[in-house]
Amino acid sequence: MKDMKNPIKVFSLQANLFTSFIIISAILILTLGITSYMITNQEVVDKTISSRILLLDEINKQIDIQLQAVEYDSLVAASHPLIVEYLQEEENSFSRIEKNEQVIDLLSRQSYIKEGIHSVQLYAKGSTNNYYSGVNGIFAYSILEQSPMYEMIQHADYIWLGTNKLINGSFVQRKDDVVSFSRKVLSPEGKELGVLVFNVNISYMHKLMSSHAADAGRFLLDTNSRLILDSSQVKNDALPYSAISEALPDMMNQGNFQKQYAIHHFDEKQLLVWSKQQRTQWVSLDLISWTGITAGSQKIKNTIVIVAVICVLLATTFAYFLARQFVHPIKGLVNAMKHLKTGRLNTRIDNEYDNEFGYLNNHFNNMAINIEELIEQLNRKNQQKREADIKVLQEQMNPHFIYNTLDVMNWHAIEAGAGEISRMLSLLGKMLRIALSSGESFIPIRKEVEHITCYVELQKIRYQDQIHILLHIPETINDYYLPKLTLQPFVENAIIHGFHSRRKGFIAIRALELTDSIVFIIEDNGHGMEDTAKVRERQHHGVSNVSDRFDLYFGSAYGVNIESVLDKGTTVTISVPKLSSVPLDWERLREGHDGHERKD
């Protein structure tokens, strides 16, 4: 499947700027809004947790005060001489029967004068009779033994028994919800005489527990995690204890017990907060609906959404005008480029910017001026090339005539036995054949070397072997092309101007193959000159022609460099590009160099 293009490469700059600004703005606004909501929501939760913990701590203090009061009253009653003496006497003795009313009155007085005390019951060990007034009284110990709470009572001198159904003093008849506390009555010798049970009104405990709990289910657990109070019994919308009892231990263990809260999902997300009494180790718990906690945060969320929408709309408007302002100078630059492309070289931009846009506009104007000047130069060079081509054609006509004439003269020399003249004519014919090259401007390097060899052989005949030449041309470059008659003018210049008053002359021609070019070095031991300007003045016409052709073909990347030292000689360095074939279009070649174009 073809990959989708990058939208930045497809849509206009204005569309990309506008869209990017909107996306970035929306991301920032959404991030800010979501972060604000989350922080606010967490702050509300933290405040709720801390306030509930403080509230539960205060409730625990109030409950503990009441519990201590009950425990103290039970201790006073259990150690009261009347009760101790009563329990030590025989059940049916006159003295004990006489004290029944006094004991019942003492027990009943606790429920009358103490707020929250439902009843006080004394279970006399060894007694089979019941004596009571209302819910207060003296009962047979066997009734206690039949109670499901007897096992707890039996193993402790005093203990809170939790919530139970009071049985009109018998644990088996009328049922009232109470929270009971039992304390054994002991003789001075430490013998158990009976059990005193203080029953606290469950409604009174609810009153203590239910303050400021309109939005929560509140529970009170004893040391053994048994339920003492469940406020959901008086709240229709609160989650009952039965719904959370199984998960409660895990919640308290998995939650941060030191921070005293945990979060759990029942029918909905719930926050559990607890506080533990230091003395009794009882635990007060609040179970609060998460929806109720975050109701205020929802209002904040709605406000944030409205503000975010308004900000996005404002950002959209701002982005539109900002994108237009950014794109306007770019559109002007693009339109100017289109005009320039159609050939309107006098196109210029009115620059009113001092920033990067101004920089681009100034450079566009400079570029347009340079292009206009370059095209004028190119037109002049084309004109010069056409004139040079005509001149070459004219010059080629003469060599054809001369070549044919030389061929006739060569045969006459052979017939006349003039071998040296015949050899000179043969060398000259080869030179002319290479110079013609079927009208080609570029020839292989091996042909250029052959042309040089023929020329030097002719000069040796003329100067009677006083000129020596050393050729070091690697065979690996023989098939590369270069403009014809590149080397010969420099050899000719050395012979004519360098050796005219010397008996012997030495010329060395070397070639170096580089990565993208070939360098020819021509050295002679002629007179040389110390003034480079004079060297140029004494250049042969062919030498100047080579420089002009190189500039025409290759531009400034390649060319000729001449160094001359008086009385030591001259060194010519010629650099040409590596051309593995004849260039079809020398203009393209020139544009490719200043990196030239070639076929390897």
Summarize the topology.
Blueprint: H1 7-10, H2 13-78, H3 81-88, H4 94-113, E1 117-124, E2 131-133, E3 136-140, H5 141-145, H6 150-154, E4 158-167, E5 175-186, E6 192-201, H7 202-209, E7 216-221, E8 227-230, H8 248-254, E9 261-265, E10 269-276, E11 283-289, H9 290-293, H10 295-341, H11 356-415, H12 419-436, E12 442-444, H13 445-462, E13 467-472, E14 481-483, H14 488-498, E15 505-513, E16 517-524, H15 532-537, H16 541-554, E17 559-565, E18 569-577, H17 586-592
Parallel strand pairs: 1-3, 13-15
Antiparallel strand pairs: 1-6, 2-3, 4-5, 5-6, 7-8, 7-11, 9-10, 10-11, 12-14, 15-16, 16-18, 17-18
Helix pairs in contact: 2-10, 3-4, 10-11, 11-12, 12-13, 13-14, 14-16
Name a few traits of the molecule.
17 helices, disordered C terminus, alpha+beta, 600 residues, Heat Shock Protein 90, 5-stranded antiparallel beta sheet
Descriptive report:
By secondary structure, this protein is α+β, with helices and mostly antiparallel strands. Among the domains are: 345-438; 440-600, 2-Layer Sandwich (Heat Shock Protein 90). Helices cover 51% and strands 20% of the residues. The protein contains 17 helices and 18 strands. Strands 2-3-1-6-5-4 form a 6-stranded mixed beta sheet. A 5-stranded antiparallel beta sheet has the order 8-7-11-10-9, with helices on both faces. A 5-stranded mixed beta sheet has the order 13-15-16-18-17. Strand 7 and strand 8 form a beta hairpin. Helix 13 runs parallel beside helix 14. 28% of the residues are buried. Mean pLDDT is 78; it is low at 593-600.
